[in-house]
């Protein structure tokens, strides 16, 4: 699915499905389509009218990824990748969007990189769990090698990172 195809499909979604949220610490607002809840704390993943990914709360603020992924994107790692894909497939069906198109557009590799670079043991562990389920690009192998010896991450995650590196060699 191309960005133009996505925008065309989004234009057919009924107005009642869209919500308006403010941006945190900024003037203005965004009209966006919440697709699926991605955290127990009430954060939703959605798209704005231009096909830009948005994270937000239904009754609060939303963050656009138009200028780059906000750090809040790591919250998608709290579930597993198959749940994310299933949720997006369900949302695509519910809103009349192309099946499989949404999940290919989610910047998962960028989120995994962000999670490891966050130097948060929790997010690094979640990223390694996701990485164990997919083919790894070269830049992720570099990050995993660094993670395998990082003192700021727990031992279980270091060992899991080593295993993934060995499996990829």
Percent range for β-strand residues: 5-15%
Give me the number of helical elements.
Answer: 7
H-E string: HEEEEEHHHHHH
How many angstroms separate the termini? 32 Å
Structure summary, number of beta strands:
5
Low-confidence stretches: none
Overall mean confidence score, pLDDT: 90
Shape: globular
Largest sheet: 5 strands, antiparallel
> Structural class per helix/strand content?
alpha+beta
Radius of gyration: 17 Å
Strand order of the largest sheet: 1-2-3-4-5
- Work out the helicity level: 40-55%
Give an overview in words.
This protein has helices at residues 3-11, 81-95, 101-105, 108-117, 121-131, 138-147, 155-168; strands at 19-22, 29-37, 44-48, 53-56, 62-64. By secondary structure, the chain is of the alpha+beta class. Strands 1-2-3-4-5 form a five-stranded antiparallel sheet. The longest helix has 15 residues, at 81-95. The protein starts with a helix and ends with a helix.
What does this entry show, briefly?
The chain contains seven helices and five strands, in the order αβββββαααααα. The chain is an alpha+beta fold and 169 residues long.
């Amino acid at each position: 699915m191309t960005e133009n195809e996505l925008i065309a499909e989004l234009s057919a979604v009924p107005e009642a499905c869209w919500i308006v949220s403010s941006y945190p610490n900024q003037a203005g607002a965004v009209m966006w389509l919440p697709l699926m809840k991605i955290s127990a704390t009430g954060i939703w993943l959605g798209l704005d009218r231009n096909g830009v990914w948005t994270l937000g709360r239904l009754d609060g603020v939303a963050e656009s990824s138009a200028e780059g992924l906000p750090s809040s994107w790591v919250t998608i790692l709290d579930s597993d990748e198959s749940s994310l894909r299933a949720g997006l497939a369900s949302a695509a069906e519910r809103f009349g969007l192309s099946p499989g198109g949404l999940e290919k557009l989610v910047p998962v590799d960028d989120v995994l990189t962000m999670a490891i670079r966050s130097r948060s043991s929790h997010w690094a562990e979640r990223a390694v769990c996701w990485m164990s389920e997919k083919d790894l690009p070269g830049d992720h192998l570099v990050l995993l090698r660094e993670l395998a010896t990082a003192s700021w991450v727990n031992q279980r995650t270091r060992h899991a990172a080593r295993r993934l590196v060995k499996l990829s060699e």
